[in-house]
Amino acid sequence: MSASPTAPPAPTPAIELRDAGVRFHARLPVWERLNLRIMAGEFITLVGPSGCGKSTVLRVMAGLQPLSEGALLSSIQSPAFVFQEPALLPWASVHDNVALPLRIAGWSRPQTARAVGPVLARVGLADAEDQWPHELSGGMRMRASIARALVTKPDLLLMDEPFAALDDPTRERLQADLLQWWKTQGFALCFVTHQVAEAVFMSTRVVVMGTGPGRIVQEFPIDEPYPRTEVFRDSARFHDCCVSVGRALRQVEAA
């Protein structure tokens, strides 16, 4: 009698918060006993009211904020962070801003030049590498900030409301481009936004957080294939997902 086939091992999360909490001084905890896992190559988005600790989740995963309790389990070798403001050095060219993390890591100028050029081309800034930040539009500055993260070839990209200050057409172009870069490079991505439509359009999973202290209230898998286009944005499926996530957010805010 032949043996039954062995079930494949369960996939290991790329990064996981387990019963985790953060407390600043003697104040109430930002969040406590929070459990969240991100699988390799997954795109999750955190939504929730201000003060629920979304940005703190990113800071903990990036190693910028220690836990007060619980554990952070990670197989990530190269995380990268994109903030709401592009935070470009005003005295440095686009090329030198993007090259900054490589220069800090000790790369030579010829090495950085070989790495930066293809990334600038990928984000649509090949013709702007010698420009200064003040010469760029808001969308171009954010592209430069994303390029500075991508040049490190991250296996986890953390993005804290990166498109919040952009007009709708620029925002939608960057959403589509970000999805292409994510699929091409294969990193895991944790994204924070206040826009339900943005979360639903891009993510494999939307995580709704609540306050008092911060906690995960509900999760919504977005079972829509990639690439995602305007066809999805105009579909009944997209509308239904937005309604479900929006309803969960309103319940959190009313609690």
SSE run: EEEHEEHHHEHEHEEHH
Would you tell me which CATH topology of the domain at 38-67 and 156-255 applies?
A: Rossmann fold
The general outline is globular
For the terminal residues, how far apart are their CA atoms?
A: 58 Å
Strand order of the largest sheet: 5-6-7-3-8-9
Report low-confidence residues grouped into runs of 5 or more.
none
Assembly type: single chain
Computed CA radius of gyration, to the nearest angstrom = 19 Å
Number of strands: 9
CATH C-level of the domain at 38-67 and 156-255: Alpha Beta
Helix content: 25-40%
* Overall pLDDT metric: 92
Give the count of helical stretches: 8
User: Main sheet, how many strands, which sense, barrel?
Assistant: 6 strands, mixed
User: Which class best fits the helix and strand makeup?
Assistant: alpha/beta
> What proportion strand?
15-25%
Q: What is the second-level CATH architecture of the domain at 38-67 and 156-255?
A: 3-Layer(aba) Sandwich
The CATH homologous superfamily name of the domain at 38-67 and 156-255 equals P-loop containing nucleotide triphosphate hydrolases
Task: Give a description of the structure.
By secondary structure, the protein is of the alpha/beta class. It has a domain at 38-67 and 156-255: P-loop containing nucleotide triphosphate hydrolases (Rossmann fold). The protein is 37% helix and 21% strand. The protein has a 6-stranded mixed β-sheet, sandwiched between helices. α5 (168-185) links the parallel β6 and β7. The longest helix has 19 residues, at 236-254. The termini are far apart. The model has no long low-confidence stretch (mean pLDDT 92).
